[in-house]
Amino acid sequence: MKDIRSAFSVLLSRMGFNSDFILAKLAQSGSDRCYFRIIVDEKSFIGTYVPNRLEGECFVNLARKFKLSGASVPEVFEVSDDFHTYIQEDLGDISLFSVLSMPQSDNLIKQSLQKLVKMQKIPLAIWKDACMEKDFCHRQVMWDLNYFKYEYLKARNVDFNESLLEDDFERLADRLLSMPTRYWGFMMRDCQSRNVMIADGHPVFIDFQAGRFGPALYDAVSFLWQARAGFSSDMRRELLDEYCKEFCAGDFILKQEMLSYLDAFVLFRTLQVLGAYGYRGLVQHRSHFLLSIPPALANLRELLGAGALDEYPELKRSCRVLVDDPISDFSLAHGRLRVDVYSFSYKKGYPENLSGNGGGFMFDCRAIHNPGRYDEYKYLTGRDQEVIDFLESRGEVRSFLKNSWALTDPAIERYISRGFSHLQIGFGCTGGQHRSVYCAQQTAGHIREIFPEVDLHINHLEHP
Predict the structure, then answer these.
(1) Residues in CB range of 67: below 8 A, 6 or more apart
(2) When you count CB atoms within 10 A of the terminal residue's CB, does the N or C end of the chain come out lower?
(3) Within its chain, how far is the Cα of 453 from the centroid?
(4) 278 against 163, higher pLDDT
(5) b/e per residue 63-86 (b: at least 16 CB within 10 A)
(6) Do 337 and 429 meet the contact criterion of CB atoms below 8 Å apart?
(7) Is the Cα torsion angle 94, 99, 104, 109 positive or negative in sign?
(8) Of 143-147, 231-235, 327-331, 338-342, where does mean pLDDT reach its minimum?
(9) The domain containing residue 194 runs over which residues?
(10) DSSP of 18-78, one letter per residue?
(11) Are residues 170 and 200 in the same domain?
(12) Residues 202, 281 share a domain
């Protein structure tokens, strides 16, 4: 940590900051990258430490090229000579995944797909030399399919004929690679709502360092068939139709040809993520990945029903065994921690604790500047964008929530490890309308992102 702080100090000095700074480590995801929030001279940045130099170099170079080309990516301000550390734009703490249940998410989802097309269609010559990965190819397809075979099929003790399965894998690879290159572009590789941040009300893509030249449809499928995103079949098809129309510039014939490859790419992505869930969940026992297995198997069941595996008989037989596996109904609903997040009015008192164990956290939001004092906000709530912009523009609510989460996050982690059943978190303000509602919404999104295994409930007592 001391060496990392020193590295960031050098970068900040290059940016013209010579005063002391606050360095706070952010929650780590599945990768080895470490993220830090840097506060210096009342400005906020994200500092990144990457153990793999090539990965850091690729992200920085791609981000800079895409930014100059108008893509929706974070700005990189400074980078170390060895590419292990760099400082980039602070996009906040709200991912698209954390707001999928909110009313404004439909528009954000559509925006994300539109911005994805824009990034994918940036001319190859601009970004190709920044990629660390080779173009999408037969070898890469077989790596992912064999990842599924070894980390999921074998982990679930499915009996299969390996030679026949490899024949099916070859056929699937041939189908994927037969897509004409006019439908190729920048393939982000892991395009999902967790890798889309919402900054100033707009989606921004992150985590694209493994990108390469490949079939653009793969990213749209990854986004819409993300296991826990919860998109309905109808919504997926409608959004995908709009995506392909955008990519093909309205050409109906090209759009139909692009869509003809859909089943193959949905099948490929589903198998690829099951391999990842098998390794991270069944082998490493990470609850977030375990929770993603049932919805991924639901996608596989839908593919079987639609006949998408009919050309791959041994794979089809093996997948039928998988969807009948008891793990397809796996749930942590029994025995998992329930977290209730409340907004309330201090005029009407604290929310009732129905768990029988008392305790929890109650945070007083009344020290935060109140938008309810102004006529234009009186009839809005903390879920309305105008109020959100008002609170976030002042900055004080961010430090308030950061300090609140510094208390609640360790408690949730400990409650989970000790097998506790319930935790209550409340945010109160004068009327229970603006500040408390905003803080409860943000906290629920934060918990959903960091602790997806909890049974989360949000309750607005004054404005349900």
Answers:
(1) 73, 74, 75, 76
(2) C
(3) 15
(4) 163
(5) bbbbeeeebbbbebebbbeebbbb
(6) no
(7) positive
(8) 327-331
(9) 97-329
(10) -S--EEEEPPP-SSS-EEEEEEETTEEEEEEE-SSHHHHHHHHHHHHHHHHTT-S-PPEEE
(11) yes
(12) yes
